[in-house]
Amino acid sequence: MDIYFAYHLHTKDDIVIALLSDLGFESFVEEDERTTAYINDITRTEEVKNTIEQILQEYQVTFQVEDIQPQNWNALWEASFTPVHVDEFCVVRADFHEKDPEVLHDIVINPKMAFGTGHHATTFMMLSAMENIDFFEKKVFDYGAGTGILAILADKLGSTQIDALDIESESYENIKENAEINGTKHVIAIHGTLDNIPAESAYDIILANINRNILIQSVSGLYKRLIPDGVLLLSGILVEDKSIIEETYFENGFSTLFFTEKDGWVCIAMKKTH
Description:
Alpha-Beta Plaits, Rossmann fold, four-stranded antiparallel sheet, globular
């Protein structure tokens, strides 16, 4: 298992978080006026480390770095995690929390360093937006699946096949574990990149909560893998980047269905138009 570094940042600046996300940080936990950002030791090369420090210096962010050994992660998780309620539609909780009988969909997530617990605005908006999309008997692709949280909800909403892809081996293992915990029948964990998904896959719905750069790089690949009139749900996008994402996707055969904003981030539902 990888060793991770926790950057305890004395800021909640969305721009700083977005810049760090582009460098390979996998998870962000916000509390009070502080954010803890996690990156593994393989991703944090000397060059990346220097770039991180340059960004934090430029934005005048004070920080402390802590190395997290694999055996310490569960204790850290249990000490910091609280359930996330998306109205009465769904709740995201750990297995040591009581189930809420008032919520329609119960999702149990034990993250093991993978991104996606519902705490960050982008994941929260993705979960919320999924209530407005018909997943019944649909074929779904979760691109950059993290913990598998979105794939698991898609299964609970009636999807018959959900391919959950992540480039990180830790996330791949975590997707499998969380899918089993939730008793899902149709989630298939895949370790790799978009190139590992056949171009002729013909998904009805694609979910992509990643970051601006990867979304821009992947536009043609996502277009190829989505059926005509298929739905694409995007997040990991700062509000100020909404226009460039929409312009890029409009030029490649998509139109916007609806969007939501939360804490300086945006989630966009799009349709493949031609």
